[in-house]
TrEMBL record:
The keyword Cell inner membrane does not apply. InterPro entries: PhoH, PhoH2-like. Belongs to the PhoH family. Transmembrane segments: none annotated. It comes from Maritimibacter dapengensis. PANTHER family: PHOH-LIKE PROTEIN, PROTEIN PHOH. Keywords: ATP-binding, Cytoplasm, Nucleotide-binding. This is PhoH family protein. It comes from the Bacteria. Residues 126-329 form the PhoH-like protein domain. It is found in: Cytoplasm.
Length: 336
């Protein structure tokens, strides 16, 4: 923990930044139980943090010390606004501090004030934890059609559903439609028990999970019963025009070229559409082209469409997930 023992900074580079926090109760929350929040910042930012009464002394070289101090101040401000601090919030503040970009002068939306991005839902406030996530969320609000492409665990679907819920509860759209290709990855649909809904629902479960994170479960059930929220396989979209809706196609790498064209042409007046996928997890039969890859090549020149890309650095699950993705990418000849 703390300063790198293998490459310690020179003594003349080590200085101390002293931060004072007036509310001792909030300072206790900032430090965390057994100072675990401070330990996380020390480990990830290569500094020492010493507690002295209502002050925290950050010890380290100039760049790391300044960044760690900024993270501590941002986290304290979260507490002042009545928010809690979890390990993921700390990780997000550290990532954003390392890759902060100035806010665009044209941003007029309230959620972009101060260069920060917040998505309000019924149950929680959602904040992007990496610079790529931040750019992605801005894209979802500004563009009628946006793509989120990258590995699992980077928040592509989660953030898209959060934005959809935000736009629904604020009255910008009348309904939410969430879809996935029901591609058979190792199991045959016909062999699974139950009727068609029972067979398909397991494929849709991640979408149900995301919705239940942002809306009370009883409200989700009511809205589904009223058809104001629909969760359905991609094949069920054929022949429809989706107007005044927020539409998400998840796992789009498993859509064929014809399915992708069919889905994209469902876009109606007043609607927003988000396509998410991971090109490294295609479950289509050998010889069948991925519609996501084709759409990427065909539509990149259209200014009204945004393509947002994520890497292992944007993984917000367990830190090991990013390392696993890097290892597989390194062994993939196509990415060499």
């Amino acid at each position: 923990m703390g300063l790198d023992a293998l490459n310690p900074p020179k003594p003349e580079d080590i200085h101390e930044t002293l931060l004072e926090f007036p509310d001792n109760r909030l300072l206790i929350d900032l430090c965390g139980e057994f100072d675990r929040n401070l330990a996380q910042i020390e480990h990830q930012m290569n500094v020492h943090i010493l507690r002295r009464g209502n002050q925290l002394a950050v010890v380290g070289d100039g760049a790391a010390r300044g960044a760690a101090a900024a993270v501590l101040q941002s986290l304290y401000q979260r507490l002042e606004h009545g928010k809690q601090i979890e390990a993921g919030d700390i990780d997000g503040e550290i990532r954003m501090e390392h890759a902060e970009t100035p806010s665009q002068p044209g941003d007029q939306m309230e959620l972009f004030k101060g260069g920060r991005v917040e998505i309000k839902t019924r149950k929680k406030l959602v904040e992007p934890r990496t610079d790529a996530q931040k750019a992605y969320v801005k894209s979802l609000f500004k563009k009628e059609l946006a793509f989120g492409i990258g590995p699992a665990g980077t928040g592509k679907t989660y953030l898209a559903v959060a934005v959809g819920v935000n736009m629904f509860i604020s009255g910008h759209v009348d309904r939410i439609l969430l879809s996935r290709p029901a591609v058979e990855a190792g199991e045959k649909l016909g062999y699974l028990p139950g009727d068609m809904k029972d067979k398909v629902d397991p494929y849709m479960q991640p979408l149900y999970d995301a919705l239940n994170d942002f809306l009370p479960s009883k409200q989700v059930e009511k809205l589904i019963a009223e058809k104001r929220i629909e969760i359905a396989p991609l094949a069920f979209m054929r022949g429809r025009t989706l107007s005044n809706a927020f539409v998400v196609l998840d796992e789009a790498q498993n859509a064929t070229t014809m399915q992708m064209k069919m889905f994209l042409t469902r876009l109606g007046e007043g609607s927003r559409m988000v396509i998410t996928g991971d090109r490294s997890q295609v479950d289509l039969p050998r010889g069948v082209n991925s519609g996501l890859r084709d759409a990427e090549g065909l539509l990149k020149h259209i200014d009204e469409i945004d393509f947002n890309y994520f890497t292992a650095k944007d993984v917000v699950r367990h830190p090991l997930v990013g390392k696993i993705i890097d290892a597989y990418d390194a062994a993939d000849p196509a990415k060499a």
